[in-house]
Fold Lipocalin-like domain-containing protein.
Amino acid sequence: MNENKLVGAWSLFSSVQSRNGIASKTFGDPPSGQIQYTNDGRMSAFLMDPCWKKEGVNASKQADLFFSYAGQWEVKGDEIHHFVEFCSAPSKIGTTFVRSIRFINENELELSTAPETSPSGNVYETKLIWKRFS
């Protein structure tokens, strides 16, 4: 894959999480967010439900409404690896987020997670559609 196709800023268009095969929209309808990839291998992502700003002082207790992280990125085959250095969820710092990459067209990008099983046995998958800022 040509990594240069990723470089730039992308706006979150769709955010869907599936739990045991049942899909639900996350981060609002429509969602709000931005992901950026730089030529020198840096990235940052911000995902926010538009209603998050209305939470005021209680916003920090609404982690499902806002999530951000940043670090380095690398493409490996049809996957992108985000090496998390900064994150709104401290437990994710130092981890790697692996996403499958699929270009829908020149200006639309799909990033999706592989199925993950929680300790309770639930299977989660997330699919994010991003549109390039013009």
